[in-house]
Amino acid sequence: MLTELKRLLGDRATGDDGVRQEHGTGFSYHQSMPPDIVVYPRSTDEIAAVVRLCDRHQVPIIPFGAGTSVEGHILALRGGVCMDLRRMNKVLELDFEDMYCSIESGVTRNQLDNILEGSGFFFPVGPGVNATIGGMAATRASGTNAVKYGTMKDNVLSLTVVLPNGQIIKTAGKAKKSSTGYDLTSLFIGSEGTLGIIAELTIKLQSYPEFSKAAVCSFPTIDEAVKTAIKIIQQGIAIARVELLDAFIMNAINRYSAMDYREEPTLFLEFNGSSKTVEEQIRSVEKIALELGTAGFLWEKDELSRKKMWTVRTDAAPAVAALVPGAKMMSTDVCVPISRLAKCINETQTDLKNSGLMAGILGHVGDGNFHLAIPILPDDHATLEKAKDLNERLVRRALAMEGTCSGEHGIGIGKQRYMDLEHGKSIDLMRTIKQAIDPNNIMNPGKMLPDK
Prior knowledge:
about 450 residues, alpha+beta, Uridine Diphospho-n-acetylenolpyruvylglucosamine Reductase, domain 2, Uridine Diphospho-n-acetylenolpyruvylglucosamine Reductase, domain 3, Alpha-Beta Plaits, 4 domains, 16 helices, 18 strands, globular
């Protein structure tokens, strides 16, 4: 297989042990499982050629973006070929008039931000890592802007996908809406590489807001902070971002980023739009927060300070990891209907205290999504088992509240065991779709859908 791939791609196909190990771990706490071969295609046609070869020999394919997924999406459970798409990083078309951008799947979030700098437009989906846009689509990524702009499923117009037999398809055109045929774009978004390989994307761009203002406000308890976020959403205030960080996370941030925030449950807020709209939003949110016990707002006075504030928020996970030198992060998330968010977080906080684990709660509470960040040393098996038990209880709590086992991390292998519990008989239909598109089960096998 390696000989045939080298004939096709030259030195962009390798069985080097170091390269294989690099592609078998990612950000996951799961045990490393490297592929047999790593390839680096540079075009959609090269992806298709590699896929046809793998299909002929029935060799598994594991798509790889930046390796930043946390639920074991990139582990080579059955060996095979890891397809690293980072060299497919060209912008194919920028159309500001129709507000879209066509890119190859290996373009990263930071790369796209730099390309759009000064254009008056931006791409709103931003997870807390520099992921590839293709990987973000494959895992249906989200981020701090989701409360206003939605997730990846809301911001992709069309995909170019290589199917498991090597056929290249385009899922839609560039119109903002269509009522023709099955929604194939949505089918592949969130499929985690189990149905095909996303090679190119056409994504929506948003106009950069005329005016933005950001603030931090802390509360005596996490209950008041969560209730403030819930009330903001329920009153229909079109806030751009509302993020929750508990006291543990705030302590980690102060140490890691040399800040001096109050070490209490805290909301990070952003308002944008016209100056008049922003002022109206601020007055409404201030009233709610003061009624629920905030000591007041710490406003960021300029654009540089605003960006620094959100960098600090993005660095929350590495800040927690830094508390335990050498630790890896076990990060898990759930999402519940917003009316049940306070109850879910309060019960989780009590569970966390009783477990004795060092961990923090943070999340995109504007859409009912929150995370646990747990630093664990590689050889600390007892702590890992405790963390797994805590995660089990968290997931079952969220599902009992008619939520989901993952709001944005996805399934991979980490949340696979909960798919039957969440989806019931729908799993059979998902298996039928998988079998129809990938009859030889070569696309990221063993992921997402539980084996029968």
